[in-house]
Amino acid sequence: MKIRLFEPQDAEQLAQLFHETVRAINIHDYSCSQVRAWAPDDIHFRNWVEACSSRFTYVADDRGVIAGFGELEPHGHIDCFYCHKDYQHCGVGRQIYQAIEAKAFELSVNRLFVEASITAKPFFQRMGFAVVKEQTVSCRDETFVNYVMEKLLEKVA
């Protein structure tokens, strides 16, 4: 498994990974109508190229198969963070997160924060994040519970 930065040709695989993961994994914590709103069928790959190129998007590449990805914005916000449905509980997320945290240190970011789904909350807790608050958000006429979480980063002497 190689962790590397996003390349434009990854966009289609990332979009498909996102769609399939939400539909197959997040369905355990959200309703059918919620996951359809979250991951609609009309995915636009061009939008993924723009979004992923504007952030530090780390991709877990398993010999050409993208096993997961995570996005870091320069101010410490982790946006999308998904592991392929067939790569759950294999350490892929931890490897992606370690790359994100290393980049945050490089950028002198002292706080990482994320809006984690019910599904992702335990993962981020294992990575050392604390829940700041539970919140309700809307997307395509559906409401979702998620969690604002943060982790303060300390410089190692």
TrEMBL record:
Residue intervals of the N-acetyltransferase domain: 1-154
GO MF terms, alphabetically ordered: acyltransferase activity, transferring groups other than amino-acyl groups
Classification via Gene3D superfamilies: 3.40.630.30
CDD domains (UniProt xref): NAT_SF
Source organism superkingdom: Bacteria
PROSITE patterns: GNAT
One Pfam family it belongs to: Acetyltransf_10
Keywords: Transferase
InterPro entries: Acyl_CoA_acyltransferase, GNAT_dom, N-acetyltrans/Recomb-assoc
Stored PANTHER family: ACETYLTRANSFERASE, ACETYLTRANSFERASE (GNAT) FAMILY PROTEIN
Protein name: GNAT family N-acetyltransferase
